[in-house]
Structures are given as structure tokens and as C-alpha cells.
Amino acid sequence: MKKLFVGVSLLATSLFLFTGCKEQKRTSLKPGKKNGATGIAYGDKKSDEGYQVSDFEGQPTGPNLVFIEGGRFTMGTVEEDITYNRDNLERTVTVASFYMDETEISNIDYLFYLYDIEQDSTREFYDAALPDTTVWANSMSFNDQYVDHYLRYPGFRMYPVVGVSWIQANDYAAWRSKVVNNELAANSSGKKKGGLSFGKKKKGEGAEGLDTAPVETGRPKIESGNVLPNYRLPTEAEWEYAAKAMIGTQYIDENQSNQRIYPWDGSSMRKDRGKNKGMMMANFKRGRGDYAGIAGRLNDENIITAEVYSFAPNDFGLYNMAGNVNEWVYDLYRPNSYQDFNDLNPIRRNDYRDEEKLYDKDNFNSLIDNQQRVYKGGSWNDVAYWLSPGTRRYLDQDSSTATIGFRCAMISVGSPQ
């Protein structure tokens, strides 16, 4: 019996040595203390010698961003093509995970940007960043209150900024990338505590305009993990994927038995249950002359735009992906993008394989050139047809209207959330 006990003990010891002490598989979040390929220990963080491996818990989530889990989806219009453009036929694509603003960029967000660049930028750059408030002007409408007050009046703070061109939206995204990474750098260096906060820069800090460098610290190394990728406009595929939010239709397996016309289930624009049953799900124009309904029973409660947190979010947690304002996306407009697409992370950033000269705009045979950018989503001034994520329109990248705003996106890098 004693020999049996000793044998069992030796077996248990052996199992412990071969299993209990075995180093766990390395991951990006836990790479271990030694380099797996050489067995050489990583550098000492206290002495700052050797190859340094920073602690890493995953990509930080930037302000106002929501994580969008990527996947396969059917891109393209699911509505009848009433304009007969045939420029967005259905095709299957896959979009990698990314982040997107949960709301449209608001007036107060944009005013903060204007304030910040006014401190250190040239006057020419500041003037070029100003929204065109005259987009509200109309000789046949009394919209004077919006021309004068919509951007700056406190009562409109959380309404979506409009009158911003595609170029201006891109400049905003570039500035935002700089200031958010500045703040991360300051926090990581111990100069600040808590979450991200923004204050007035002193004169002389940073370079002119969008070339502002992180205050005092310099941009952190990418290896530190304490730096965000750039904010930017979403691609058309990302925007459409996020708007449809097909994740809300998943139940048991990866098969999807239906398509979504709008960012919610069903073909109706009205809420079909609950205390607000019968009320509209988005801010849009019901028909000729009907922007909101009747007093005492306003169906979408807004005659023009609505605050950016109005209405229920979709299944990704994104607000107003249908209606309120159309939104700029990154893509150059081409009617044949559905034919030329790459089925992984598709984008049309230039006229590759579909050159500008093919459209002959100079001789008025087309409106298409390399300045036309896609916008999507429908607005307060659009009928329901344009609220379907698969519909698309285009406008010159230097133009702006009272019905187009924007939100930003950011790639997700490294380990999934």
C-alpha cells in the first residue's frame, strides 16, 4: 500500500510539472516576460534597458466612439430604385471591426474646434473652417432665425452641425486626432489624472493649424499602445454596415433570414409597440409641406433638425443613422462602384479603374468628376426613401447644405474587444 501511495504521489508530481508549471500561451495582451522565439528576457521597465514591452489592455476607446463588431453583410439598396441610377446593386462584402461616433458632430463640438484652432492657426485656416450659415437662407422662406442663430445660440448646442463641406469635415477629423492623442500623451506622462479633458492651450504650444504636436511630451510610440489611430470619415461600406446594424437580427447561428430596409426591423417608420406606439422612429419629411405633424401631436417633434441624442439608437448604439441630417462618407462617387469593389473593406478613394475622363463633365455629358463625394442617411428635409442605408447621393466635396452633417470613425487595431 505504501508503494502504491508513493507511485501515485510521483505521478501527481509529474503531472504538475508538465501541466501546472507550463507557461500559458502567449497573447498580444499577455506576451510573457521572455521572448518566445529566443528565450531572452524583455527589458527591465525600471532601468529602461533592453527591448521594452509595455503593459497593454487593448485599444483605448476614444471620446464619443462606439465599438462596431465587423462581419459580412449584403451591401446595396433593398428599396425600389426609383431614380433608376442602378449605382448601388447588392453585393456581399466583409467589413473589419471599427469605431464610430455614437452621434453626429454637434454645434458645440464644432464650436470647440473653431475656438481651439483660432488660438494657434492662421486666420486663413480659421476662416476656411467656418460653416456656411447661409445654407439656411431661402428667398421664399423666412429662415432668418436659423441663419443668425443655429450655429451659435445655446439652445442649438446639441443639434448637428450643418453647412460643413466634405473638406471641412476631414479637417475636423485631422484636428480631433491631434488633440485626443495630445490628451492621451499628457495623461500617460502623469501630467493629468482621470479621463480625457480639454482646456485652453497657451499661446506658442504646438505648431500652426493642424500640425499641432502633443503638448511637451511628443506623440507616444506606437509600441506603447497608448495612442489612437486617426479619426476620419467612415467609408461608405462602414457607414452602411453600421446603419443597418444587422447584429440585431442574430439569434442562433450566422444565418440571416431577413434584410433591413431601415436601421430597425420592419418596413414602417412608426414605433409599433409601447407607450410611444405610432410615433415616428426618425426625423424626416412625411410628405409635401409636412415636416413634423400637427401642434399637440407632432409626430417626430422636430420641424428642422433634432438634438443628436434624439430617437432610439440602433442595435450598435448609434443615434440618428436615419434622418436628422445626411452624413458625409469618405468615398468618391462612382456609379459603378458596386462592380469594381474589393469585397474586404471596400472603399473608393480615387478614380482608379474608373477614370474621371470617362465621364466628360467638361462637355456637360455628366456631373461626375473627382470632387464628387457620397453622402447617406436622409435628413429632416427628405422623404422616407432616402432614410434607407442602401440609398446614396453625391455632392461636390467643397459644397455644403443645411441637410448634411457628419460623424467620425476610427479603425480597430489589434486584439478584438
Q: Give average pLDDT, whole number.
A: 86
- Beta-strand percentage? 5-15%
Q: Give the termini distance in whole angstroms.
A: 54 Å
> How would you classify the helix and strand content by structural class?
alpha+beta
Give unreliable regions as ranges: 15-21, 193-217
Percent of residues in helical segments?
A: 10-25%
CA radius of gyration: 26 Å
Folded structure, characterized:
The structure is a single chain. By secondary structure, the protein is α+β, with helices and mostly antiparallel strands. It contains seven helices and eleven strands. It has helices at residues 2-20, 107-120, 123-129, 144-149, 166-188, 236-244, 337-340; strands at residues 65-68, 71-75, 91-95, 98-101, 293-294, 297-298, 326-332, 372-376, 393-396, 404-405, 409-411. It has a four-stranded mixed beta sheet. A three-stranded antiparallel beta sheet has the order 1-4-11, with no helix packed on it. Strands 2-3 form a two-stranded antiparallel ribbon. The radius of gyration is 26 Å and the shape is globular.
SSE topology sketch:
Blueprint (H helix, E strand, L loop, with lengths): L1 H19 L44 E4 L2 E5 L15 E5 L2 E4 L5 H14 L2 H7 L14 H6 L16 H23 L47 H9 L48 E2 L2 E2 L27 E7 L4 H4 L31 E5 L16 E4 L7 E2 L3 E3 L6
Parallel strand pairs: 7-10
Antiparallel strand pairs: 1-4, 2-3, 4-11, 5-6, 7-8, 8-9
